[in-house]
């Protein structure tokens, strides 16, 4: 069965760093575009970063220069390196896969809390 399992969330201080991981199974990861989204309580889910099957990346303006998305096809894993974290980065972070057919899968999310 298809699975996207996020990990790496937690509590960090402002200015700190976290690396999120999303391990995929049940489909051809290397031909899929991968994204990270986030959703804070009471707010809309928003796109944070995307990486295509060829390695091209795009970022939301709010995280440019601070976050880096990458992928390791041998491990079926996409990462989100988050540096210089701010309280407004606090949210549940979700992994999303889009297969070459256009079919979409979502992970269950991992909580990131940035607080002093």
Find the structural class using helix and strand composition: mainly beta
Q: Total helix count?
A: 0
**Quantity of strands, as a count:** 11
Q: Output mean pLDDT.
A: 97
Task: Provide a short characterization of the protein structure.
This protein is an all-beta fold and 116 residues long. The protein has strands spanning 3-7, 10-12, 18-25, 33-39, 46-51, 57-59, 67-72, 77-82, 91-98, 104-106, 110-114.
Description:
- The structure is a single chain.
- By secondary structure, this protein is mainly β.
- Helix content is 0%, strand content 52%.
- The protein is built from no helices and 11 strands.
- The strands form 2 sheets. Strands 2, 4, 5, 6, 9, 10 and 11 form a 7-stranded mixed sheet that branches. Strands 1-3-8-7 form a 4-stranded antiparallel sheet, with no helix packed on it.
- A hairpin with a 6-residue loop joins strand 4 (33-39) and strand 5 (46-51).
- The radius of gyration is 13 Å and the shape is globular.
- The mean pLDDT is 97.
Throw out a few tags for this protein.
4-stranded antiparallel β-sheet; mainly beta; 0% helix; 52% strand; globular; 116 residues; 7-stranded mixed β-sheet
């Amino acid at each position: 069965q298809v699975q996207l399992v996020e990990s790496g969330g937690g509590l960090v201080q402002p200015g700190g760093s976290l690396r999120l991981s999303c391990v995929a199974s049940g489909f051809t990861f290397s031909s899929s575009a991968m994204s990270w989204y986030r959703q804070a309580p009471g707010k809309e889910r928003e796109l944070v970063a995307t990486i295509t099957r060829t390695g091209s990346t795009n970022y939301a303006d709010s995280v440019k220069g601070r976050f880096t998305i990458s992928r390791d096809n041998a491990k079926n894993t996409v990462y989100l390196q988050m540096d210089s974290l701010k309280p407004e980065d606090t949210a549940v972070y979700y992994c999303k896969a889009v297969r070459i057919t256009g079919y979409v899968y979502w992970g269950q999310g991992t909580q990131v809390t940035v607080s002093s």
